[in-house]
Amino acid sequence: MITGSQSWNSSFATTPTGSGFSVSPTGSTGAASQSITNSVPGITSMSSTTNTVTGGSTDLSDSGSPEPTRTPTTATAGNNGGMTTTWASSNSTAPTPSPFPAANYTQVAFLASLAEDTCYHLPEEPHGELSRRALMRNSKLREDNVTVPVPYIQSVEFESEGVRPLSMTVRDKSQGTFHIDISNRSRLAIASSDGYAMQIDGSGIRFATKDCRYDVNITIPNLFSQIANLSSVGCSVGTGAQPFPSPIPVPLINTNTKRAEDIKFNQTLLLRDQCGSPVTKAIRAYPQLRVGETTCQDIAVDENSGTWEFDCTFPGAISGILKCQNAVKNDIIDFLNRDSFGGACPDISTMIATLGVTGNDMLSRDALGVALYNQRGASNADNSSSVIENVASGYTLLWESLQGFFTPQNASVNSPWEEYIGTYNKHRSFENDICEDLHTGEIPLSLNLLVGATYIDAVTTLNWAPRAARSYNVTVQDPAAIACCPNGSEADDQGKDTCAYPREAVIEDTNCSCGKTAGGQSLAFEAMECDNFEGRCERDEDCQGGGSVCVVGTCCGGGVCVDPYACSQNGTALVKFADGWS
């Protein structure tokens, strides 16, 4: 057993043995070369050199330790209870980076730690609310005798509003599951149900457990550009080339299924104010018709009749279901196939396949295990080589799962991910199934209207875009018009202590009543002490105030002069749409 810290050296290569990790001399070169040809498009031949440590031939496992199983069982990687990128805390050590003589990559360094203050976790709902999960209709495909490629997507996790995808749960051939992080376009990350995680970005590759123990950070400057050079595919960052187009012959989007954003219809409203006058463009606030949360556009107005024509879409560009569809297309389909890492690199399948061929010396179980073993405390039983060996095996299995999902298999031009999406969209719609699952409860959508001082939350409700929408006659309140009202009446028992207006003339929860002017028009006016009115009157001409009118039959023993605009401008609802005003 090695008792001291080990460092990388080109004189020795690690190889697995029946009892764990071992180190054996390789001669003067220290390299075990392997010819790689035709494994990835654009790669003709290169060598892969195994990782090395200093010292003689030494067994790195505890004496008598059995060969570990390929299933990670270490207690340090518990169930993954998190879904935002969160950071866990623990007591940290202060390891130093160790240069690694990678065969195909430059400036590679390993930084392993038995305990870190921060590490990667699967993304969670950012505001602490419950996330939402959409289940794929794989069982429906099987019912239609469609063979679902394996591995396949089981579900997609979204934040609470159901419009931003966080991660995908993938089921593999052994019916195990792992999770692909799709919340951040600058990286690709995978996590197992046991709590192991692997993250790839432009600066390197990181492995971690759920509780931030046994972390391995492989620093590789300009990783994407180095991968692009090895794959002979240009990246837009550092090479000036355009992003690599995905060579996928299967459909990414089901073109036979019409997307909700394409469904448009025209809606006509006949708008009149509280006095029956046509509503013109001069009204404030300007008419705003919406389907759910999406605003329609007015395309024609006949001010003589108050006829307004609107161009609407269903369910609308900012509806939950359509925002979800756009997010699925941009953050899942395009990110994983065409616009990987913002277009800075070849597509993810090419990247993973190239890294799998050219980076095995860095990503092997032995390389990861030796890096962790070198940080082991000599007397800490929790850091025994068998535990480290299981962790390294867990990381290796995670890397193999990532390759198995994104790397073409058996000479296929498509990765299993691409095969799955192609098969799914041939028979159903990946976007629609996900978003309908999340947003079905939001249909029907209300056709709501805001105009003047009136808001109608549902002129009607829509389950789909109407082919020939019916017109609606709508009365709205214009604050610039006088306070016309229905059911204008004179007071009962005028001049007596019991004087009052009939119930139908009382505007509830306001200080206004619907009376009669001397000219016979119904008008809402503000109630007050009789001595506080502008004056007494029998006709409008008796009122001296500018614009005042005479309301007759009041409880003041006759007519009084009132401001005809007061109840139109003080927030009184002169127009209602359930019971009462209409």
List descriptors:
single chain; 582 residues; alpha+beta; Immunoglobulin-like; ten-stranded antiparallel β-sheet; five-stranded antiparallel β-sheet; 19% helix; disordered N terminus
By secondary-structure content and strand pairing, the structural class works out as alpha+beta
Mean pLDDT: 78
Cα Rg: 36 Å
Low-pLDDT runs of 5+ residues are 1-93, 235-260
Number of contiguous helices: 11
Total tally of structural domains: 3
**Count of DSSP strands:** 26
Q: Helix content range of the residues, please?
A: 10-25%
Outline the biggest β-sheet.
10 strands, antiparallel
| Cα separation of the termini | 90 Å
Which term fits the overall shape?
elongated
Strands side by side in the biggest sheet? 4-5-13-12-11-10-9-8-7-6
Strand content: 15-25%
Structural description of this entry:
Residues 1-99 are annotated as: Disordered. Residues 44-95 have a biased composition (Low complexity). Residues 1-42 have a biased composition (Polar residues). This protein is of the alpha+beta class and 582 residues long. It has three domains: 95-252 and 323-439, no CATH class; 264-313 and 444-475, Immunoglobulin-like (Sandwich); 482-582, no CATH class. Helices cover 19% and strands 24% of the residues. The chain has helices at residues 138-143, 223-231, 236-239, 320-337, 348-358, 360-363, 365-373, 385-406, 416-427, 430-439, 566-569, and strands at 12-17, 20-25, 58-59, 98-99, 109-115, 132-135, 152-158, 165-171, 177-181, 187-192, 197-201, 204-208, 213-219, 264-272, 288-291, 294-295, 297-302, 307-313, 445-451, 454-462, 472-475, 512-517, 522-526, 536-537, 549-552, 559-562.
